[in-house]
Amino acid sequence: MPIIAPSEPTACEPGPSGPRYILGISCHYHDAAATLLKDGMVVAAAEEERFSRRKHDASFPLSAIRWCLESQGIGIDQVELAAFYEKPFRKFERILSQHLEGFPRGFKTFQMAMPGWLSEKIRVRSLLKKRLGYRGDVVYADHHLSHAAGAFLPSPFEEAAIVTVDGVGEWTTTAYGRGRGSSVELYQDIRFPHSLGLLYSSLTAYLGFSVNNSEYKVMGLSPYGRMDRDGNPYYAKLKRVIDIKPDGSYALDLSYFTFQHSDRMPGARLSQLLDGPVREAEEELLPRHKDIAAALQMITEDVVMAILRHARRITGCGNVALSGGVALNSVINGRILSQTGFTDLWIQPNAGDAGSSMGAALFAHCCVLGKSRAYRLTHAYLGPQYGSEAIGNFLAGKGILHRRFADRADLISQAARLLNAGEVVGWFQGAMEWGPRALGARSILAHPGRPDMQAILNEKVKHREAFRPFAPSVCAEDAEEYFQCDRAIPAAADFMLMVYPIRENWRARLPAVTHVDGTGRVQTVRREANPLYYDLIKGFGTLSGIPMLVNTSFNIRGEPIVCSPADAYRCMMGTGIDCLIIGDYLVRRKDNPRDIWDSESAATD
To answer: In 3D, which of 23, 151, 142, 140 has the Cα closest to residue 84?
Structure first.
């Protein structure tokens, strides 16, 4: 069966009353989100945090659902089916089981968790009825089946192996299987408490970073340690914690952890093994901490590569689709095609739990209703967007000094000149991205060739740790000139999910995006997906000689990526961003004193 691209109108036959809508929902554990399908096509998808302004908001995604419905001009009564990303009663069974097994340890944690479970978490259908007036049916998909469907069904593949790895769903923590046509099947899994995701999170906590939020910091820290399996003593130490089999199956030595019965993850025995107590959040990062991060990254790579090689052998597929939080480890992703035997890969851009709202909706469409696949995800611009009139009214209404560009060519020309002059630009254009990566819609942009730019962005703009790297955006056809990419660059690179070495002859010219190990987490940009951003990169390259931009998410530490014009302006005024290019308008921070901004009233915009 050929896969039909979103631009082609053919899909499922509309029902007698018009288009058929399916609403996918994820919430209550990690990032909450909603996805809306229209005749099998994804027409809207967004995370709740972007509306609530609470990072990693896990609450019922009321605002995200309402926006999805409003974007299509429909009410909840026009939704034919709702799909939830996991099975609440099975998850509740696991929560009860692990606390009963560990009783009386963890009783306090159990006691704190119960009210939320009894009032909301196992009553999804009641919540939909109470909050939205929904009276239709609800489909509940297994957590990892939602991950698998979200990985394969929107992928470009007719057939592919599927691998999902995260912390834990109901019971499963790791699974592999195969997708074919409109079907998704998981063959084998590993179950809680044995979890690669929870191992990574436990070490994230040990290193003084926040769990379910800062695992990517550990990935960024790892190259500062000894990335040498023989030369890093903590690699051998961590191998005592996890028993890895040739097929990628594994088991944790649970005596090193407390996550089974506590809200603290690393145990006293782990601290003893790693030669010191848990690092405090603002404590200095020692060489030992950096070596531990490197060892953890290598151990994680060992497991994932073994699983992928096994999945390649068992399924016989040349393609692989990935999801689950571990699929956001872009360092590992950049090595998959060269080390596993797969010839192509695709990764759900929103690989964590938020992306499973899309997986659940597509699972309901294809696997429950029996409809053919109608959708291929070719870009991640699926969220709210604001027209020129709305942005202009916002700026005028707040008394914000601004200038309007004469046309698109003027916008690109002015933006390229500002960036070439070393200014940091807040870039707010089109529909917001789906997933944790800014991809040229809600981005902070800068010159990759300036030696001081990484420090400026970390210290004055993002207010974050100095070791954190920044990503380069490059036009897809130019990527191989600057990066040692896979022979055929996978589409996952469009979503900033691959780390590749920067070619040695370019590293000195790209100090702002070259990490300490000589790599960069590249985003490839295609004109058909984002013509304005593509043309800006080309225009900047004409001026600078480097057709590439620093691209980091438009937010500051501890806040979600901006969603609305009000969010964008507030972020600029509270940071070292020099100017904001928002729709057809240029706003300069120096032209707008902070005291004109009524942040309390702005919060209602």
So the answer is: 140
Please name the residue that has the structure tokens 């191989």: 480
User: According to the model, what pLDDT value does residue 504 have?
Assistant: 97
Task: Give the pLDDT band of residue 104 (cuts 50, 70, 90).
Answer: low
Scan for tokens 């709202």, then name that residue. Answer: 357
For the stretch 246-294, pLDDT in tens is: 999 999 999 999 988 776 789 999 999 999 999 998 899 999 999 999 9
The sign of the torsion formed by the CA atoms of 226, 230, 234, 238 equals positive
pLDDT at 9: 28
Q: Is pLDDT of 598 > 90?
A: no
Strand (E) or helix (H) holding 186: strand 183-191
Residue 244 Cα distances to 127, 194, 209, 513, 534, angstroms: 42, 11, 26, 34, 43
DSSP 309-365: HHHHHHH--SEEEEESGGGG-HHHHTTHHHHSS-SEEEE-TT-SGGGHHHHHHHHII
pLDDT at 10: 27
Tell me: the pLDDT tens digits for 16-70? 468 999 999 999 988 999 999 999 999 999 999 999 999 999 999 999 999 999 9
Give, in order, the Cα–Cα distances in Å from 584 to each of 132, 377, 404, 412, 574: 36, 27, 6, 10, 22
Helix (H, G, I), strand (E, B) or coil at 106: coil
Q: The domain spanning residue 297 has which CATH number?
A: 3.30.420.40
Strands (E), 39-158: 41-47, 79-84, 137-140
Does this model's pTM top 0.85? My answer is: yes
Task: Name the nearest CA neighbour of 570 among 426, 356, 412, 460.
Answer: 426
With respect to residue 227, please indicate whether it lies within any of the assigned structural domains: yes
Q: Other C-beta atoms within 10 Å of 166: how many?
A: 29
Spatial separation of the C-alpha atoms in residues 489 and 521, rounded to whole Å: 13
Quick check: is 478 in a domain?
Answer: yes
Please name which of 174, 467, 442 lies closest in space to residue 306, comparing C-alpha atoms: 174
**Residue 48: which domain range?**
1-143+352-378
Helices 124-132/62-71 angle, 10° precision = 60
Task: Specify whether 68 is located in the same domain as 136.
Answer: yes
CA–CA–CA angle 173, 175, 180 (5° rounding): 145
Shared domain for 326 and 471, answered yes or no, is no
- Taking CB atoms within 8 Å and a gap of at least 24, the contacts of 64-67 are 64/32, 64/33, 64/34, 65/23, 65/25, 65/34, 65/132, 66/132, 67/34, 67/384
Residue 212's pLDDT band, with cuts at 50, 70 and 90, is: confident
Above 80 in pLDDT, residue 605?
no
**359 and 406, same domain (yes or no):** no
What is the pLDDT at residue 15? 45
Q: Are residues 199 and 165 in contact, defined by beta-carbon separation less than 8 angstroms?
A: no
Tell me, what CATH number does 577's domain have?
3.90.870.20
Mark whether 373 and 398 lie in a shared domain: no
